[in-house]
# Entry
Amino acid sequence: MAPSKFASVESAPPIEVFALNKAYVEDTFPQKVNLGVGAYRTDEGKPWVLPVVRHMEQKLAADETLNKEYLPVLGYEPLASAATRMLLGSDSASLKEGRATGIQCLSGTGALRVGAEFLAHIGKHSIVYSSNPTWGNHSLVFLNAGFTSYRSYRYWDAAKKALDFDGLMEDLRNAPENSVIILHACAHNPTGVDPTQDQWRQIADLIEERRLFPFFDSAYQGFASGDLDRDAWAVRYFDSRGFEMVCAQSFAKNFGLYNERVGNLTFVAKDRSVIEPVRSQITLLVRANYSNPPNHGARIVGTVLNDPVLTEQWKSHIKTMADRIISMRLGLRERLEKLETPGTWNHITDQIGMFSFTGLGPLAVDKLIADHHIYLLKGGRINMCGLNTGNIDYVAKCIHEVVTTTQEASL
Amino acid sequence: MSLISSLKIFSPSSLNTTQNALSVVSSRANSWWSHVEMGPPDPILGVTEAFKRDTNPKKMNLGVGAYRDDNGKPFILPAVKMAEAEIAKKNMDKEYSPISGSPEFCKATINLALGEDNEWTKNGLNATVQGISGTGSLRIGTAFLSAFFPGGKDLYMPTPTWGNHVPLAKHAGLGVKQYRYYDPKTCGFDFHGALQDIAKIPERSMILLHACAHNPTGVDPKPEQWAEMSKVIKEKKLFPFFDMAYQGFASGDIDKDAAPVRMFLKDGHQIALSQSYAKNMGLYGERAGAFSLICSSKEEAAATMSQLKIIIRPMYSNPPVTGARIATEILTNPSLRSQWLKDVKGMADRIISMRQLLRSNLAKEGSSRDWAHITDQIGMFCFTGMTPPQVEKLTKDFSVYLTKDGRISVAGITSKNVEYLAHAIHQVTK
# Structure
């Protein structure tokens, strides 16, 4: 055989969160704890398929009128319109004036990618900012979508274990005009630290003044506080200010539909006459990427969101998940304070959503993994869903142990 | 794509959002998007839209390429229904799929293409990832080739080819070139033209091949012609990228339809392969497909696999499972698999019989034209050879909807409307 054309292809580095999960799965230690991958777990440590989702799947299976025909390129319209309405609220001026539109995408990542490709190819934006730190995939999505420069704005103050608001504002002030700014709508990943309402107002003022373009990433609406409206406050505030913006929405966590890839890209314009041209250009982008989105998850979410009774049922599930996470935050903080673990631990309950930036340094993290079989990301991010009444004592004890025996800056 | 002009952006705070003519004008000027032009309308969608608006009870939609049963209705394969029932029993979770899709799905899919006991999978030489049906798999493949193919970055495509191949390749950063394929004089394969053009392709270029049921013409090379092409492609050191969207759906026989792919591998080519379950399992909207590279060693397969994942993650992180689970269940459950083989043969047979009926009815109508290509061609589509004015007349006078290039979707023909169609075609072509 002729020499291979691909002999020179090098193996790519493993992706941290998946490598971590693999290590956890292969660990035989009986008390191992997985605080890595961002998926909800019940108090028994199990995945949870929401009852309303199971119910919908049975209903869909029994519905003889349904088929597997292609969805339109821009997706299942009942899903897209309901998702946009869920985000902006039915009082939204942009929605009422026909200036807001939704496009079904492949979960949050897919919505980010379609939005980013549109902004790069059609909007000719080339510079994008995200927070430091941010979700690991943000930079890759935008750079692969055609952006030429990925930059960070300060966000996490390691010393205070809080938002570095002054740093954030200074970095945005220095961002070139037309830069796209990725904003986590709520439950910042990975820190769990969100700006206050007053801080959001100032951020909006600055974005307006500096002529930057806001791109919201909303992966946890409802999942963060248990309240859909509360978690959408920042997006709705920007909308009420008349911003043009896009927002990537994921239904992976709040519907527990991780592997069905249900998402929505909400696009808000100043003028309704641009909506159709924009949709037609996005159609071309989608066609050249994957033609049309998957059907199954869209029907589940689209049907629930358009049915008041099912929506109420779903809201109660979200509250269940959010409440359990909040109780784990309380529980962990209480135990660490009771153990008198060095440092302050109020950040655990100040933070919101699935993740907590513990402030644990790399040495402590290594020890937690190697000595105690507790798996978390290098940067100290833990998934609160991985905690439950069965393991919270063990985790608190081990955190105490590594903190007291590790010499590390800033804790 | 649209033109970009540089706009002076006014401060958004000067805008009020109450609806009056002045604010509409100033809001357009304020918008980031007022320069965005309407994209060209999708030609196939346009056909369906026009069809929907037509009130003629005899209207026929021969545009969209989706299978229809003899009542003109979408068809859910019995094997699919059975698979769904099995899957429901298992109460599976909704946890993230691996980036590359489930290993079971990938294995079943590449084995479907190459044969259950094939030496390439057995030796771990394939890097196979789930893709968003055929389009998504082509997208992953073109992205990989754009980044890693060590030769020329032009992808050579048959003339004509599926309308989306060109935007797909360009979007991935590849150049697009052509080789002759369809001969309008015979409504058949331009074998000599194809060989001549392929022989002129610069060495170490990539060539796209439709494995079976060529879209849009329905014209496939004969086995001995494939053998010749394989030889020339090997001599010219070209890299074959197979698009197989109709395995089983073309002839009704999964091995026969995959024969060109298997032949090329036996001949020693390293190939790329895109597969789709949209048509052969009727899973259109569930978006199940796969992209594979057949490598020269296990290590190479592992390395290319890791790079494929790096390509997928910033696109959509990981694939949707429902369609893939159905395909896996069907392929790995012996009774479901044999049911599926019956179902797909049933679809292929119906299409073949519609071709026969159309041709015989045209003869009955008294048409003196040679319509042999209707039955010589294979798969979903038929390039009738009708000219644009004839197509226009067919639509206007008979409410038969098809694309301007004279392509009909044979799946849209039923035993109840084939006579009407033959009559209509005869009227516009006599």
In short: The first helix of chain B runs from residue 21 to 30. The two ends of chain B are 41 Å apart (CA to CA). Chain B touches chain A through 87 residues (CB under 8 Å).
